[in-house]
Amino acid sequence: MPRQVDHDSRRRQIAQAVFELISEQGMEGATLRDAAARAGVSMGAVQRCFSTKEEMVAFVMDYMNRRITERVQARISGSAEPESAMTMLEETLVGIVPLDEPSLAETKVWLAFTAQAAVNPKLAAVQREHYAGLAELLTLLIRVAQDAGHARPGLDPAQEADSLITFTDGLNVQILVGRHTPESALTTLNRRITALRTN
Question: Contact at 8 Å (CB) between 31 and 78?
Fold first, then answer.
């Protein structure tokens, strides 16, 4: 059992190193050799954890998704109405927009994944799975908010969820290229969320 725990810990250690490399240098910076050097482990250790770069990148995608989920959950727990579906929806959307250094790094890595996924069907499938999970969550939250009278009854939850994902993706790109600041992006996102609420 301890050997399995060590293996999982080592994979997370390497994933963090790869995450940092991609956020700083793009996907081309995430070689197995550079990952080993950044993580402070041998090439053999990296190869024992990940047989290919593709496998390593897919693991980092899952690792980053867990990071974002944990941050969103912390935001929800610290909010005034943690049990409200609208609060959960709002904090989830705010949590995937780069408003500080950690979330900015995550957005850079996510977009690097997206560029790679455009030419790699296996990574595209992993990314679609992440999007599907997010769409399912947002759909559920909108539906629950409608049932509680906090979201407009005429909304189609599934269509609205897809629209919100597309909206936040576009907002993230515009923050990275400097068309939006984190502050103006948050204002824009808040207007979009307000449009979902009942009057």
Answer: no
Segment-wise mean pLDDT, segments of 10 residues, the chain, 199 residues: 65 92 88 90 90 85 88 86 90 92 91 92 91 96 96 96 97 95 95 92
Cα three-residue angle 62-65-70, rounded to 5 degrees? 130
CA distance 96 to 107: 8
**Across 5-124, where does the E strand assignment appear?**
none
Q: Which residue has the tokens 């909206």?
A: 167
Asked if 109 contacts 64 with a C-beta cutoff of 8 angstroms, the reply is yes
Nearest to 110 by CA among 90, 93, 89, 130: 130
Please name the residue that has the structure tokens 């904090």: 91
- In 3-state terms, what secondary structure has residue 120? coil
